[in-house]
Design brief:
The protein is 50% helix and 15% strand. The chain has helices at residues 18-29, 36-45, 49-59, 66-80, 94-103, 116-124, 164-187, 199-215; strands at residues 7-12, 32-35, 85-88, 108-113, 126-129, 134-137, 191-195. β5 and β6 (134-137) form a beta hairpin. The chain has a single domain, classed as 3-Layer(aba) Sandwich (Rossmann fold), CATH 3.40.50.300. α6 crosses α7. It is built from eight helices and seven strands. The protein binds P1-(5'-adenosyl)-P5-(5'-guanosyl) pentaphosphate and magnesium ion. Magnesium ion is lined by residues 18-19, 35, 37. P1-(5'-adenosyl)-P5-(5'-guanosyl) pentaphosphate binds at residues 12, 14-20, 36-37, 40, 57-58, 61-64, 69, 89-90, 92, 96, 122, 126, 135-137, 140-141, 161, 170, 198-199. Residues 126-161 form the Adenylate kinase active site lid domain.
Length: 216
């Protein structure tokens, strides 16, 4: 458990394992996982106003407009209150990074550096339980019953934006928009980069870093 509040951002390409690693961090250290992608997908499922606005952008691999996402994310951070959190999927550009900095003091920025060919393979095998955001992967993190969520038994689905042509667009957009964001956080001395091909290879290094960072 954290002995003080720890607010971190996790950055990585689509399919790099942000959701998987955030879940591990929160399970082991008791923080709240805030995933903007999960929030948007849950709103699409419930057909809310936000979901209706976001649906087409996500399906095409485009960013949902800043005005919508920033308001939603900051509202979620307010709900989380005085607790440690990992912010996954936000910020997505400099404007969002500035909006976050104006509101929150971020303690660390964790970046995941996974080769694109590894990512393309993973995304092909990804299945999700959209209502909860739980993620599975055939051959890596199989559900106990094929095609079913471990907790609810509900059917798993594939993401609309995991089609190969949309993944290619998302990867390109990531490089274009996120390299400047990472450089922006590097200037502030906040970035810890984790390079590798597998989550199990990255995780022990991440644990060492987190323990150091949290007890510093
Ligand atoms: P999201 O939802 O933020 P992305 O594209 O940033 O989407 P994504 O696809 O959710 O990121 P991830 O969370 O980095 O990927 O990866 P993951 O799900 O944990 O892992 C990928 C797969 O690999 C899983 O099946 C996992 O089980 C498996 N895996 C993990 N580790 C290993 C391993 O070691 N080995 C193997 N074999 N498999 C492994 O955003 C979606 C859309 O929402 C909008 C945008 O339209 C965006 O495109 N959006 C925003 N728009 C504007 N501003 C924002 N801030 C927005 N946030 C979201
Ligand atoms: Mg994710």
């Amino acid at each position: 458990m954290y002995t003080k509040i720890f607010r971190a951002v996790i950055i990585g390409a689509p399919g790099s394992g942000k959701g998987t690693i955030s879940t591990l961090i929160c399970k082991n250290h008791g923080c709240v996982h805030i995933s903007t992608g999960d929030i948007l997908r849950q709103n699409i499922m419930k057909n809310t106003d936000l979901g209706k606005k976001a649906k087409q952008y996500i399906a095409e691999g485009q960013l949902v407009p800043d005005s919508i996402v920033t308001k939603t994310t900051l509202a979620r951070i307010t709900e989380v209150g005085n607790r440690s959190y990992i912010l996954d999927g936000f910020p997505r550009n400099i404007a969002q990074a500035e909006a976050l900095a104006a509101r929150e003091q971020i303690d660390a920025v964790i970046t995941l550096d996974i080769p694109h060919d590894v990512i393309i393979d993973r995304v092909r095998n990804r299945w999700i339980h959209a209502p909860s955001g739980r993620v599975y992967n055939i051959g890596f993190q199989d559900p106990k019953v094929p095609g079913r969520d471990d907790v609810t038994g509900e059917p798993l689905t594939q993401r609309e934006d995991d089609k190969p042509e949309v993944v290619a667009k998302r990867l390109q957009l990531y490089d274009e928009l996120m390299n400047p964001v990472i450089a922006w956080y590097e200037k502030k001395g906040l970035v810890a980069n984790f390079k590798g091909k597998q989550t199990k290879e990255i995780w022990p290094r991440m644990e060492l870093y987190l323990n150091d960072r949290i007890n510093a």
